Amino acid sequence: MSQVEKPLKFLFINFELPQSKRVQFEKIIRTQTPQSSTHLSQTSLSRNELIIIIEKSSFQSVITACEKYIPDLYGLMISVEDNNSLRLNEQLSFSWSSITGNKSSFYSGFSLRFELIMSLVVYALAHYNRASEINDCSNESSFDENAKLMVNHLKIAAGIFNFITSVELPRWMNLPEDRPTECRQGFSLAMYELCLSTALSITARKAVKQSTSPSIISKLHCEAWQKAEMTKQFLKDLENSLYKKLPKSLKQIVSNIIIIEYSKTLMFMALNSKAQGKISDALGYFYQVNFSKIKKPSNTKISTILNSIVNDVTIEQQALSRENEVIYFEKRTDINSLPEKPSPMPKSIVNMVTFSPPLPSFMSIN
């Protein structure tokens, strides 16, 4: 199969972004100075703009709105936390929906940490979904540039999810039991792994276009496979009731990515053996490819992408089998006698973009 014919699309899921209800900080928090009132009004404005944009605008617009609101939110947190002189007209609370429920069902929280984590989740998912949008419109001429954009969005998303699980969730004291799945450590850990798994798969495809050695490409796919396995494990480590509520499409696509990435690992190990003249080993690696457990997606677009990837591997597998029947006449190496096991690169070449909290847009209110 020529490189032009090889699949240029990747398996993504489009997440429904969590939605929220409006909050008017300046009506809830008492202030004594016009400047403080202005800070609160601006924070309300940037937050409510984000809420509207989540419902009606593009994922790139959501990213921009998050980058406008989050500095205001950090300013509010610095100003409010441990401020014993603060007076409220009513209890400050936030309402957010979850990817595990419907848009009209909301979780309520009274902690600014809850608000920050959900805002960061939206920010990260918007980056992931933006990568998915770019994937949809990629073609041969635009692939190289789009691959850079997709990988960058995924690395940024991974960095945000890592920040949530390593920094913000540990800071949230007295976690309420009734909170969205997005506020569970397992969810952010899973999303971190999924983002990097997908980024590795895109990097491997780019390496194919650049005629990189099959040995290196197999290691990229191997790491993508292992990270997809970690994604599944972190999701399954959630409480059983929460795991059952996860979108079926998410669980399905993760299972399919695991099969695809493992199969591609074996395919490039086979192609590497073939390049070295080790036809028996190549046949042995291809023999392990098994698509029987692929779960057929209901989404036509995802199904088409999946079929294209499966066909790519199957065609290479069948081509070697035919060549062996007419040229090589080699016997397949037994699985237990193959010289190599799937292994990733000693050091990953795809890493998250570390998320650093923005400077607060203000430092105090009074």
TrEMBL record:
Annotated InterPro entries: BRO1_dom, BRO1_sf, BROX
Domain BRO1: 9-366
Alphabetical list of Gene3D superfamilies matching this protein: alix/aip1 like domains
Membrane spanning residue stretches: none
Similarity section: Belongs to the BROX family.
Name of the protein: BRO1 domain-containing protein
Species annotation: Dictyostelium discoideum (Social amoeba)
